[in-house]
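User: Second chain of the day. Same drill as before.
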Amino acid sequence: MIETIPSFGLGTFRVDAAKTTEAVRSALQIGFRHIDTAQFYNNEAAVGAGVRESGIPREDVWVTTKVWWDRLQQDKLIASLKDSHEKLDIGTIDLALVHWPSPEGAVPIAETLGAFQEAQKLGLIRHYGVSNFTAPLLEQALEAPGGKEIVTNQIEVSPFLANRALVEATQRLGVKVTAYMPLGEGRAHNDMTIKAIAKKHGATPAQVTFAWLLAHDIVVLSASTNPEHQQINWDAQKLQLDADDIAKIDKLDEGKRNANPSFAPKW
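Assistant: Same format as last time:
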């Protein structure tokens, strides 16, 4: 049984349910052991099917899902995780996250964490964590009953949104950072700095970007439904960037978010 969140995963945001099962199956057969989904993505059932059909032992696969912000009350959270558990149909879910913090703190984080602990007792989940939490919100969560068990804070991180203050605060608090939208909605593919570094190493811009994140001890969520591209992404773990490469990519930070909905916390 995997006890620590694997550092390289497959994200399934915006992946059509019809393509999700095959994408998950092929990724697991390539070597991926971390699959990320969410209730909001409407593809949990397809993710579960991919896990079951992959031939990889269930205990060797880490599956993360997320609870939407309107389901953070005790009863609603438990009901939603029962629904996720049924849709995934893979037994106990490895990790459940608060997808977005409760707007204006309407639901106390202590209530949500208490519900996660109840979900653990019910065998619905093994671990829990948060997503899109600012440093103050994360500190508040860690101080609440059950907060010390938070596994990760999943946030947007890319060369163009290094999110450095939040990354460093999260890591300083002893919580793992997981990066979504790591390619900046595709910008990394065409950035001249990243392309030059990729040429130097005989790599792709995506591989360079993922290697940069890994060098900063950040969990990567790559996204592809194409087995060939999945293999290329997976191989990014073999790429070792030098200090100059990392410094050049660090300078690309613009501080601009792609994910910033109206209900997001004040960054």
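The chain has a mean pLDDT of 97.

User: Great, on to the next one.
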